[in-house]
Design goal:
Blueprint: H1 3-7, H2 22-58, H3 63-80, H4 82-90, H5 99-132, H6 134-140, H7 143-161, H8 163-167, E1 168-172, E2 178-182, H9 186-189, H10 199-209
Antiparallel strand pairs: 1-2
Length: about 210
């Protein structure tokens, strides 16, 4: 197989007739995914909104409240974008929202993941310093330093998730089904089209490149 064979960026799968079609397995995955993400959306939006309201506007500002406020903001932004992914799965991995929302949805998912990990790490580190090094904590554990660290965390998470804004792309199959996927093929980003000849090929490809 030569390099030119990969240039068309097409994917073909031979499914023997005696083997079960992956569509049935994928349908079960659809239902499980839809259930979890729907519950996360229904509980996450009001739950995080309440936390943001009390910690951001009602309670006195402290180092601890700032850490948890930022964590709640990261989760709140993520759950706001969940309906896009829920719709994507419910429509059989058809993405009707366009390329830029495809990029933004993936970027928000990565931003939330890394920001949450970083904030949870610093929350644990903050508790350790407060208990084990009280003198250091009293001197440097201030709201100003917490705000600075929070900005650094948000910037770091955005930088790490930034490649999604470049590599995420949409592709339309012959049956007018559009997927949102990681496109590492330069020629395809410049205007190529991913070729699929059946719904099974689209589902397999979408399932393997999804997030």
């Amino acid at each position: 197989m030569t390099f030119e064979d990969f240039e068309n960026y097409s994917y073909f799968y031979d499914l023997p007739e005696e083997e079960e079609s992956p569509q049935s397995t994928l349908s079960i995955a659809h239902m499980i995914s839809l259930s979890f993400y729907s519950v996360a959306f229904l509980l996450g939006v009001p739950g995080n909104a309440i936390v943001i309201w009390f910690m951001g506007f009602k309670w006195d500002k402290s180092v601890s409240t700032l850490w948890f406020l930022n964590l709640a903001i990261a989760d709140f932004i993520f759950v706001l974008f969940l309906p896009l992914y829920i719709t994507y799965v419910a429509m059989g991995f058809h993405w009707p929202f366009g390329k830029w929302l495809c990029k933004m949805n993936s970027f928000i998912a990565l931003l939330n993941m890394f920001a949450s990990v970083f904030f949870l790490t610093f929350i644990s580190l903050d508790r350790y310093i407060r208990l084990v090094h009280p003198v250091f904590s009293y001197k440097y554990r201030t709201i100003k330093n917490t705000l600075i660290l929070s900005m650094i965390i948000w910037m770091s998470a955005a930088i790490i998730g930034g490649p999604a804004l470049y590599f995420r792309d949409t592709a339309t199959a012959l049956n007018n089904v559009t997927i949102c996927y990681n496109n590492f093929h330069v020629a395809d980003r410049l205007g190529g089209v991913v070729g699929f000849t059946s719904a099974n090929e689209m589902c397999i490809f979408a399932y393997t490149v999804l997030y």
